[in-house]
Design a protein that fits this description.
This protein has 214 residues and is an all-alpha fold. It is built from four helices and two strands; from the N terminus they run H-H-H-H-E-E.
């Protein structure tokens, strides 16, 4: 009787462990991993948006004012850093898309001996399957955490360089407009030539105006 009670308690403890690990696995599959994928996709689209904005601003900048090598280098560095971030995002999405699920234990359970430990061994087999899936997913989560950190750093660098490039290009455009305005003001206007008509000098009241003698 005591032995049966001992087995029952042991099985209850195994069931508690199985239920706990299944909940942890569910959190991985429904929350953690999808959240990481969404974060990577968000970073990737942000990079794409900033690159498109950089190209548009650079194109307008070249049309408005003369080309500055410094500003072009800034925009180029920003686009390169953001492009590297997109590249890392694609690699991360491709290399971490094999999510693990618990394997079917039917065949293994069918070969268990029919004794007092049959149910206990079946629970252990399920726990082993869940733990195996949990550990594989945990490796995926750790790998994606490192990838997300690299993607974020490249994104921040690219966005910061883009910010300075926009300021530099805007400053140069404003400076160029001020110089052009100053140059226009310095243009000497042609002085009007004297007319050929003789001015009329008015006399006292009642007198008719007479022309000034030459």
């Amino acid at each position: 009787m005591k032995e049966n009670i001992s087995y029952e308690n042991y099985e209850k403890n195994l069931k508690l462990q199985l239920e706990s690990k299944r909940k942890d696995l569910d959190i991985q599959l429904t929350s953690v991993i999808p959240g990481q994928f969404q974060t990577i996709k968000l970073y990737m689209w942000l990079c794409t948006l900033i690159i498109a904005g950089n190209i548009t601003i650079l194109n307008s900048y070249i049309k408005i004012t003369h080309i500055s090598i410094f500003v072009i280098i800034l925009f180029g560095g920003s686009i390169a850093s953001l492009g590297y971030s997109i590249f890392l995002s694609l690699i991360a999405l491709k290399s971490n898309n094999m999510i693990a699920f618990p394997q079917d234990q039917y065949e293994k359970m069918s070969k268990l001996n029919s004794d007092n430990l049959e149910h206990t061994n079946g629970i252990n087999a399920m726990i082993s399957s869940v733990l195996d899936a949990f550990n594989k997913n945990n490796k995926i989560i750790n790998n994606m955490s490192g990838d997300i950190n690299k993607i974020y750093i490249a994104l921040i660098i690219g966005a910061s360089v883009s910010f300075f490039a926009i300021i530099a290009s805007g400053t140069q455009i404003v400076t160029g407009e001020i110089i052009m305005s100053d140059n226009k003001e310095k243009i000497v206007k042609p002085t009007p030539q004297t007319g050929t008509t003789t001015p009329i000098i008015p006399k006292t009241r009642g007198d008719k105006p007479q022309q000034e003698k030459k």
